[in-house]
Every structure is written in C-alpha cells, then in structure tokens.
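Extended Data, record Helix-turn-helix transcriptional regulator
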Amino acid sequence: MTDGLDQLGPRLRAARRARGLTLDELAADAGMSASSLSRLESGKRQASLELLVPLTRRLGIRIDDLLVREAPDPRVRRAVVHREGLVITPLAPEHSPVSTYRIVYPPVRELPALRVHDGYEWLYVLSGRLRLRLGEQDLVLTRGEAAEFDTSIPHAMSAAGGRAATVLSIFNDVGERMHTHVADERAGRPGPDERAETSM
C-alpha cells in the first residue's frame, strides 16, 4: 500500500461525494469516526487495509480504484509489413477500433487489380502522387489531399508518376480485417476463384 497514496484521500472524497454521502454517514457505516475519515481524505492519516476495506465496501468500489495507476507505455511497437511492393507501418495498437497505417506505394507500370472489402477507408497523401481508381473514377491525389470512400466499391491504388507515394490510411474496425478479392469488372462482382483473406 505504498504506491499512489498521495491521491488516495482526494479519490476517496470524490467517491463519497459522488454517492451523496456526508462524512458522518460514511464514517458511521464504516464503523469509524467522522474525524478519522476527514483526516484520511485530507491525507493527514495513513491509509491501511483495516480502514479502507469497510469504506470501499460501502462505496461499492475496489481499493485499486483509489490508487493512481501508472500510465501504460503509449508507444506503438508493431512490425512493418512488406506486401506486394507496399511498405505498411502500423501506427495504432493491434486491437484499436480504428486502425491507422502509413503506407508507401512504389511506382508501378500497371495499376493493381481492383479489390473490394467491407468497411470505409480515409486516406491522406503525405508525399508524392497517388492514383486512386474507385469504380469508374480514375483520380490522382497530390500531397495534402484526402479522400474517404466505401471500400465495397471496387478500388485500387498506386503511386502516380516515377516516384513513391506515402499515404496515411485509416480503416474502421470492419475494414481493418479485410476479406479482399479481385473484382470482376464486367459483372461488377467478385471473381469466385480469386478470394484471399488478408490483414492490413
């Protein structure tokens, strides 16, 4: 009971007030004097399990709720993925509801096959020029431009011109784990023999 005790008193006071209890009411329920509780809340009395257990039971909280928790390491440490010439750097934790990636598209002679998957994608061009084929639209986005689209529409992306394009891409939780497949442009539906499951 040595970590985070400097904030234990104020948190105890906040929990008591949140439940509309006076010092006298909580102290009586916990079998202690109001002055002892007051000193505990102000940090003038050392906390002990003997004092805290009846108080937390009455407040409906855990002792851990009164202690300051150390913030977890905020850095994202995930491996860079190399796939089909792309360099994909994850920028969010693995189980984040919104998945963010830095993707480098290399210059290519031909646009990759159109793909579809559930979800939505938002992207922002950090450098270079990005070619975005979206349904019947064939667009070129330059640095500083953004786009948002329904990924159930057949689409493909590549660098435009002779240099790579670096893009910030954000997928929602549906689109992050993609069931992708090459689209049959003539029929407007997935090719039945070319399904593949891929995780970004």
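Summary. Residues 177-200 have pLDDT under 50 and may be disordered.
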